[in-house]
Amino acid sequence: MADEREYNSIVTEARNKNLPELINNAFTKIGEEYVKAIDEELPEDLSNTPAVVAAFKRAFKRFAQQGERRIREATINALKRRMSTHEQALKQVKGSDNIFDESLSKVATDAIDDMYKRRSLDVVDSFKTVENWGGSGAMVEEELSAMVRNGSSPEKATNRIMASLASGDAEMQEAVSRFGRRGGLRAATEEPNERLQQLARRIGSDARMIARTEMSQSFLEADRRAGMRSDVVEGLKWTLSTNHTHEDICDTLATQDKYGLGSGVYPAEEFPSLPHPSCTCSSRYKFVD
Ligand SMILES: [Zn+2]
C-alpha cells in the first residue's frame, strides 16, 4: 500500500507543520481578548471597589465567550487547510479528485457542527474548563477584596491585579502593552503578586489546553466525516502522538482490532473521540485494497 503511506505522510506532515502555529495564533488572540476585556470594563474611577469588582466579573465573562468564539474560528480555519491538504494529497497519489463523494470544502463547518451536536448529546467529552475561567474570575474578585480589606487602596489593589495578570504570561504582557489605554496597566507591571501570577498562568494554560484539544478533536471529526464519504477509505487508524510518554487508553485505541480491519483501525463512523485533554493522537486513512 505505497500510495496509502505516501498519502498519510503528506497529510501528517501538513498537520505537524500547521497545528502548532494555528494553536499559538488562537491563543495569542484569546490573550488579547482577555486584556482588552479587563481594560474596557474597568471604570475610570478605581476607588469604587464594588464597581471594580463588578467590572472584573463582566470582563471574565466576556473573555470566556470571546475565547470560545476565537477558538471556533481558528478551528474552522485549521480544518479548511487540512481538507485542502487531503484533496491535494489524494490527487498526488491517486491522480484523481473523485475519491470523496463531494468536495471536502464543506467538511470543515459540518465537522464543527457535528462536534458541538455530539457534545450536546453527551456522546463526546469537551474537556472545556470555561467553568474554571469563571472560577478564576471569582478568585480575582476575592484577591481584590482581600487587598482592599488589608489596607491597600483600591487603585493600588487593581493595579496589582493587572500587573500580576500581565506578568504571568508573555503574550498577555504583550497584549497589555498594546491594549492598556489607561497607562496605569503598563506602569502597574512593576508590582506583581505571586498568587495572582499563578492564577494568570493557570488561565493561560487553560486557554492553551482548550485550543489544543479543540483543534485535535475537530481534525478527527473532519477525517471521520471525509472517510464516511469515500468508497476507497476502508477505515481510520488511530495513530499515537509522538508526545505520548506514558501508557494510557490511547495505547489501547491504537492497538485493539475491534472490527477485524487491523490493529487500531476502525470504520470511519466508529472512530473514537479524543479520550483525554491535550491528546494529540491523530487519524490516518486505510484505503480499500
Ligand atoms: Zn492520545
Strand content: 5-15%
Structural class: mainly alpha
Low-confidence segments = 183-189
**Tally of individual domains:** 1
Tell me, what's the shape?
A: elongated
Strand order in space, largest sheet: 2-1-3
Unique ligands: zinc ion
Q: Give me the count of strands.
A: 3
What's the helix count?
9
Average pLDDT for all residues? 74
What kind of sheet is the major sheet?
A: 3 strands, antiparallel
Percent helix range: 55-70%
Q: Compute the gyration radius: what is it?
A: 23 Å
Output the helix-strand order. HHHHHHHHEHEE
Distance between the termini: 8 Å
Describe this entry's structure for a reader.
- The structure is a single chain.
- This protein has one domain.
- The longest helix is centred in the first third of the chain and has 46 residues.
- The chain is mainly α.
- Strands 2-1-3 form a three-stranded antiparallel sheet.
- It is elongated, with a radius of gyration of 23 Å.
- The N and C termini lie close together (8 Å).
- Helix 4 packs antiparallel against helix 5.
- Helices cover 66% and strands 5% of the residues.
Report a brief summary of the structure:
The chain is mainly α and 289 residues long. The chain has helices at 2-41, 49-94, 107-120, 130-149, 154-167, 170-179, 184-187, 194-228, 249-255; strands at 233-239, 265-266, 282-287.
Topology:
Blueprint: H1 2-41, H2 49-94, H3 107-120, H4 130-149, H5 154-167, H6 170-179, H7 184-187, H8 194-228, E1 233-239, H9 249-255, E2 265-266, E3 282-287
Antiparallel strand pairs: 1-2, 1-3
The chain binds zinc ion.
Zinc ion binds next to loops.
